[in-house]
Amino acid sequence: MPRPATLTQLLEDTARRSPDALAFGGLTWAEAAATVRRMAGGLAEAGIGPGDRVALFLPNRPDFLLLLLALARRGATAILLNTRFRAAEIGNLLERAAPRAIAIARDFPAVDAEAVLEAVPPAQRASLRLVIVMDGRGMDRILDLPVKRRATLVSANEAPDLATPEAECLTFTTSGTTAGPKLVLHRQASIAGHAADVAARIGTGAPGAALLAAVPLCGTFGLASALAAIAGGAAILCMERFDAQEADALIRAQWITHMVGGDELLLKLAEAANGRPYAPFAFTGFANFHGQADRVMEASAALNLAVRGVYGSSEAQALFALQDPAGPQAAIGGGIPASPEAAHSLAEDGELLLRGPSLFDRYLGDEAATAKARTAEGWFRTGDLATAQEGGGFAFVTRRGDALRLGGFLVSPEEIEAFLQAQPGVAAAQVVEHEGKPVAFVIPDDGYDEAALITACRASLARFKQPERIVVLDAFPVTDGPNGPKIQRAELRRMAAG
């Protein structure tokens, strides 16, 4: 079948091939496509059209996918926000992305979305003109802004398709070397085409294929797998929050065949399974976030999970490359690129360089970072170290630099450090990772109050970014270098482990 160039084409092609097959949220693919067309009509009535940006602050629900597809049909851009973000992070992203509207779900028990928005300084949310409420609760205004209700969206007349391959489609957030996360902008062609490429590699078009969407859809790991399911026509079951016992029951009851997850998620699932194997999976994409690959592969063999290592990023998209499940590198991140048009190379220092149709367009509002991310020959600099793999492809080695892997997300330590240093009584801060949790080292100033600092972190930072421990030091360990004193982060990691 032809490679789709827009998300509209991606969905409509599947609806034509399998109109009566189950899609998600109790809808068939024909019903899902019709709902998206009506939802796009509701967005048109609200004045959302080509070039507009809409922030999605939504949990893993069918409505997340429906609204994303409807925005694409309108030629609008979705700014994807993690529901674990709080006011400090949401405000920063709203200020930089300047969306016209934001979509929230007030019936998601894990997050009081309205309270989070109210805590964002008005200047940071000044671009908002509308709140889209994707639940059944009635309210006319939020933040003194008009409300567009879900029921109104889906009762509108169908809207014509305004999607184009070059239309700006969505942004992921990723941390770089600055204090705030980057907004990684993709166009529709990169998102839709990659979904089709991945679908062909992992078999979401096979009869009976079903995906458990247990990883956040706001990130590329969760979204790339869900869109591959749409491309192939696999049923999608969304989990708002991962619960191992619930996931175990869903896999058995719904004959799940596809899934992605990090090592902690998969090991929790294995514990819930308690040695009872599943019907054989076709694909489980595995990210070794916390160094537990051996245990995961043992669980995969015992439970029929068909785990294999994958590689990706917000810039290249998750599942950019996949390992051969029967090969000797099955547990290692990396493999052969999903797209036959993609390529990889290694720089002299071992940095992984990528090319391909799944790559991002630019960092929104950051031309300098965009230019720095590419070589003169057009390769994307991943910031990861890799090696050539026997039999083709590449094997991920480690992340270059000091980025932290927290809660399944790559986080710059400077992002947390900047927040800590902005609090009263903190003269300086450094953050390192220990066993997947952030540990903060602070040099106190007059008025330092640890309890107040912990309270501030809980109020403003996503839970996975909140320091597990705060260690007070008189000075950071340093070493003299050619460019002056440098903090010994390796020594801080040793101290965190001790």
UniProtKB/TrEMBL annotation:
It is a peripheral membrane protein. This is Long-chain-fatty-acid--CoA ligase. Residues 11-364 form the AMP-dependent synthetase/ligase domain. It comes from the Bacteria. Pathway: Lipid metabolism; fatty acid beta-oxidation. The keyword Ligase applies. Its main location: membrane. Pfam families: AMP-binding, AMP-binding_C. One of its GO terms (cellular component) is membrane.
